[in-house]
Amino acid sequence: MSNDEFRAALARLAAGVVLVTAEEPADEEGERGEEAGMTATAFLSVSLDPPLVLVSLRNDSRMDDLLAEQPLWAVSVLAAGQRQIASRFSMKGRISDRLLFADVPHVRGGVSGAPLVNGALATLECRTEQRIVAGDHTLVIGRVLTAQVLPTTAAPADVEPLLYFKGNYRTLG
Fold first, then answer.
1. DSSP class of 173
2. DSSP character at residue 161
3. CA distances (Å), 162 to each of 46, 94, 96, in order?
4. pTM of this prediction?
């Protein structure tokens, strides 16, 4: 089996799209670290008791390196209308995320300090429980410390999930 055959087969699996975020640790003077974000489709719940989730990170990626030293991180479950945010944070090879967050409405999580995207279907703040190297990725299992969902008073168009299927962002419609 070739890598292309493997990719083509798994591209037929629709996946939700999340933005995984974290804040770099403070520097020696106590200055806040830079915000970092990464679009992910390999994200799932692991356990209800205790509440655990898992995200798969490419080995030696910026987020993999950051979560190896920063145990607190967050997840924003993106809505269909947040395709631009997903695209922005899926770019490879960038050095800084400072400009990427500049016009993305967000708040800092009260527990993690990580950015939580306004209008996301749900947000979670997590603490790393375990890291498992699996081939060219690291599976990061996090204990969910806080969870919030978009209010049910939101417009119907704002509560549809953003999906990834056959190499493109999609919606349920």
1. -
2. B
3. 21, 23, 25
4. 0.91
